[in-house]
Amino acid sequence: MACSPQTIDSRFLFFGYWQKVTLMLLFVSSVSFYCADIEIIALEPWSELKRIGLGLLTPDLFATEYLLQAVWQTISFALLGLGLGLLLGAPLAVFYHHPIVSMSCAFIRSIHELFWALLFLQIFGLSPLTGILAIGLPFGATFARVFYDILQQTPHDTSLSLPANTDTFSRYIYGHVVHAWAEIHAYVRYRFECALRSSAILGFVGMPTLGFYLESAFRQGHYHQGGALLLLFITMIATIPYWCRKSLLPFYLVACIALLPAIPSVDGSLIWRFLSHDILPPMFQSYAAPLALEDKARLFYDWLSLLITDQALAGMVATLILAFAALGVSYLFALALITVGCRALTGTFCAKMSQPALLVLRSIPEYILAYIFMLLLGPSMLPTIMALAIHNGALIGYLSARQIAALNDNSHSNGRLDGYAYTILPRIYPNIMALLFYRFEVILRETAILGMLGVVTLGFYVDSYFAEMRFNSALVLMCMTALLNMGADLLSRRLLANGSLSYRLC
How far is the C-alpha of 256 from the C-alpha of 240, rounded, in Å? Predict the structure, then answer.
């Protein structure tokens, strides 16, 4: 018997908004996982895993040359890059409501720090400027967006109570910034942790940070040395509250600037050549054959079409497949970690034991995790999916555990799985999804650069073009990665807005 539309609607009322979004997410992720290349290529992964595990258990810190210098360079690039990001992002937050500013910031932060590093390497070489700018530019765009979101939620009645002759700057500081200072301060502290991770992986493109020595140690099979460096980096992240205090920041900044390696002189003609020749399409370069404008336009169209159809589209499809597969696995892994770490369900011991595990898993950058897994399993999408899921799942689990701890009425849970599912999980689930969809933008950025490890995503083609010194093609593909990330950001915002949630970068 045919059912009326009203009857059909009433049957599906038990599916709430987030249940529908979750089912859609799991469906898309399952299809992507099925289409992904997850073949294990390594011949003996278990023997290699045994060697890596033995290296982690018996680390050798003294085997690394220039260790203290690498640690200091990692901190220096992170601090100075963060400082540059604040200098750029704080003023831009005031004008972020202008479409040109917001779109420009969205474009800049959508390009990963490693891509910026590859670009600046062509201009400044292995100079400290390369590392600082590679971190500072995307961080500045991120700060502009987040500070704007934070300040928009401050009360507006305070500025109305100020004297009528108060200048605009004072009105802005005392009417908005003061109210949000604690939240801004907490976010800047978190971004410093992110800056340390970004600074470390800059070593994979030749910068003298911990990542450079870590990559060399694992590539050569020196796992005792690599394990020591990995443990040192995790310790550095875990002890930030102890060694990075506000009273010490002026000393650190002065020391970072004073102890930076010498900045080599930059030939202005080389910069001009890069901007006016190398990044231009071949038909518009200065050494190109003289042609009519119509012929150049036709050649440009043919060049761009071939680039998009041969590399960009294939790279974008692979990037999306990998990102959606990693998003689904991240969701499942985060849900498992949150459940295990819930004190009301698993008890105090499991909750306490989960905290250091979450710290370790979220501290290791995805790029380093993917690199290690590729040594074990070979260059397929499986190592990158595992790396992205572990890092992002642990981060979501860590933030959700803090939210569970802040709940006031956990006593209503009966200590069983059904009590957890009915009294605790529904209260934190919208925020879990908010974190997940924000992390999707991050996963997409990371997926693109993981192509530099051999997976055929957009980053694979970008890295290849940089290696071939075809900077014009690399720049086009970098723009494609930015547009892809901007689209993911818009999709995430729409899904969260429909669910009556606002979120910000975290």
Answer: 17
Calculate the alpha carbon distances from 171 to 35, 179, 282, 488 in Å: 55, 12, 52, 36
User: Hunting for tokens 């698993």 — which residue is that?
Assistant: 346
Q: For residues 475 and 4, which has the higher predicted lDDT (pLDDT)?
A: 475
- Alpha carbon distance 390, 455 (integer Å): 18
Angle (CA) 505 360 202, round 5°: 65
- List pLDDT tens digits, range 300-357: 888 889 889 888 898 899 999 999 999 999 999 999 999 888 887 888 888 888 888 8
CB environment 365-395: b (16+ within 10 A), e (fewer):
bbbbbbbbbbbbbbbbbbbbbbbbbbbbbbb
The token pair at 27 is: 């469906």
Per-residue H/E/C for 28-41: HHHHHHHHCCCCCC
Q: Which residue has the tokens 């380093």?
A: 368
* Residue pair 229/210 in contact by the 8 Å Cβ criterion: yes
Nearby residues of 22 by Cβ (< 8 Å), 6 or more positions away: 331, 433
Q: How far is CA 96 from the centre of its chain?
A: 21
The answer to whether the CB of 42 falls within 8 A of the CB of 376 is yes
